[in-house]
Amino acid sequence: MSGQLAAAEPYATRFDTEVTSIDGNRVWLERSYFYAESGGQPADRGTIDGIDVEDVQLVDGDPVHVLAEEPSFRVGARVLCSIDWSFRMYCMRAHTASHVLYGAGRQLLEDLEYAGIDIGEEKVQVDLETNTTIGDETLIELDELVNRAVWESRPVNWDDAPISEVRERDDVVFDEAGEAGAVEKGRVRLVTIGGEEDNGGNGLASGTTVTVAGDAAESRDSWDVAACGGTHVRNTREIGPVTVLDRSTPDAGTTRIELAVGPRAIERREAEKRAALAAQRLLDAPLEEASDELARLDVESDAAERIRSLVGGLKPDASG
């Protein structure tokens, strides 16, 4: 099973190939490592024969490349293709980070089901179905677990398995309707974030996959195993800076977790650090005690407000 070639070989960013069809500014290639928009991951950017690629969509299973202008090359020509590595790597990091987040959620949340992702340039949204209320403390715990998994340098592998086997596995996140891009010819593409004991790295060349069978395929030590057709890094350490931002409830029963990866995560960390240091100065307390001190002041303020309301209600009527 190959799926999108970009998913199978995400580190491939320059290639030459033959043009098989052209319709205005829409181009079909004999083979393409451009990732076509799918499963919440945006299309790759780049150039074909020097012309900007504005979009890539799957049409009847084939990637269609939408160029910024009609090309001068013709069908049968060989063209040099270049993928924007910076954006491709960002999407690889962001998509893998969403899997790490889900793995963290499985440790903290009850009756957890995956409900989709959306990778944007500013943030990544991961929708979860859970009966657990995700408050501030849980959000902090998710952030901690995600960053620990990045620090632990867990290997990330991708392979495929028969759909009949995947349906029977409790350790696999698999939504047949939502992950159509991960299914081909009765087989499901699985992305596995391995256990901490494997953190020496997987020792694989770019795009290499591993065939896992039997009990090994159902390792209880894996951080996350999910059906997915997206692009991913080979090791969680490649994700880099990541920060869980916030949560919201877009629909009943669905909680949306937002996270930032890369420069946006660094900017958020900076803002949080400035706020924490400002609170430390205002409270004249060590940073480790600032949260407790703020909570104490909040309780005292609430109590004082209740007393003022009570006293106000006991004052005699001036007209009486």
Describe this structure in words.
32% of the residues are buried. The strands form three sheets. The chain has a six-stranded antiparallel β-barrel with strand order 1-2-5-4-3-6. Strands 9, 10, 11, 12 and 13 form a five-stranded mixed β-sheet that branches. 32% of the residues lie in helices and 28% in strands. The longest helix has 28 residues, at 287-314. The chain has 320 residues and is an alpha+beta fold. Strand 11 (183-184) and strand 12 (187-193) form a beta hairpin. The chain contains seven helices and 15 strands. It folds into two domains: 5-83, Elongation Factor Tu (Ef-tu), domain 3, CATH 2.40.30.130; 88-270, 2-Layer Sandwich (Threonyl-tRNA Synthetase, Chain A, domain 2), CATH 3.30.980.10. Helix 2 (85-108) crosses helix 3 and helix 6 packs across helix 7 (287-314). The model is unreliable at 201-220 (pLDDT under 50). The chain is elongated and about 80 Å long. The protein has helices at residues 5-8, 85-108, 136-151, 163-168, 214-217, 263-283, 287-314, and strands spanning 14-23, 26-29, 46-48, 51-59, 62-67, 78-83, 113-119, 124-129, 156-162, 172-173, 183-184, 187-193, 224-227, 242-251, 254-261. It comes from Natronobacterium texcoconense. Residues 1-271 form the Alanyl-transfer RNA synthetases family profile domain. Keywords: Aminoacyl-tRNA synthetase, ATP-binding, Ligase, Nucleotide-binding, Protein biosynthesis, RNA-binding, tRNA-binding, Zinc. InterPro entries: Ala-tRNA-synth_IIc_core, Ala-tRNA-synth_IIc_N, Ala-tRNA_ligase, Thr/Ala-tRNA-synth_IIc_edit, Transl_B-barrel_sf, tRNA_SAD. GO terms for molecular function: alanine-tRNA ligase activity; aminoacyl-tRNA deacylase activity; ATP binding; tRNA binding.
